[in-house]
Amino acid sequence: MIDTPCIIFAGGKSSRMKEDKSLLPFAGFSTLAQYQYSRLSKIFKTVYISCKDKNKFDFEANFIEDIKTDNIFAPTAGFVTVFKKLKEERFFVLSVDAPFVSEKEISEIFSADTKSTDATIAKTNFGIHPMCGIYHSSLETDFSKMLQEDNHKLGFLLKSSNTLYVNFDDEIAFCNLNHPHEYQEALDRI
Questions:
Q1: Pairing label, strands 127-136, 90-95
Q2: 3-state class (DSSP) for residue 127
Q3: How far apart are CA 116 and CA 156, in angstroms?
Q4: Alpha-carbon span 180 to 150, nearest angstrom
Q5: 166: left (phi > 0), else alpha (psi -120 to 50), else beta?
Q6: Would you call 3 exposed, middle or buried from its count of C-beta atoms within 10 A (0-12, 13-18, 19+)?
């Protein structure tokens, strides 16, 4: 098992799905969040769910509620809160809506990560996947500054930091369930 904590980000607005995707049923679990928590708990010693309000979930888990912000649904507030609460040198992040990132991809990201990088992030031909990778404490100040400035562009932060990208050929592993048809395709795939 991996000692580094895993953070499942489940505090998004889900505007394209038109309902909270973290609460959609998935793979025999009552919610996608519970599915992700269960499967990632078999890979990581400690798994947390970053969210706006833990009361929306009806299962036991380690929750980290975002610091209170006005209508900010970007992961920036979650990152700031995780850095403050965990005080870890690094942690792995995965969006709740990426259920096909497997232990294989996670292991490759960890194998590539070094102490001298600020972040180690998955990349495919489609582009970078900022919500699948390792973030180091060296970025804590940058995230706090981004939140203060109401800037939530993770791609910009990664470009201006010492970021290592791990290339993957399999696009399916990194597909996000943003729209209803993508959710249905994911249900068909499992």
A1: antiparallel
A2: strand
A3: 19
A4: 29
A5: beta
A6: exposed
Tens digits of residue pLDDT in 31-67: 999 999 999 999 999 999 999 889 999 999 999 998 7
Residue 124, helix vs strand vs coil: strand
34 token code pair: 């519970």
**CA 11 to each of CA 49, 89, 97, 182, 190: distance values in angstroms, whole numbers, following the listed order:** 9, 23, 11, 19, 24
The angle formed by the CA atoms of residues 50, 26 and 174, to the nearest 5 degrees, is 65
pLDDT level of residue 70 (50, 70, 90 thresholds)? low
Position 62, amino acid: N
Tokens coding 152:
């939530």
Q: What is the dihedral of CA 76, 94, 39, 187, to 10 degrees?
A: 110
Q: Which of 125, 134, 17, 156 is nearest to 79 (CA)?
A: 134
DSSP secondary structure of 62-87: EEEEPPP-SS--STHHHHHHHHHHH-
Q: Is the pTM of this model over 0.85?
A: yes
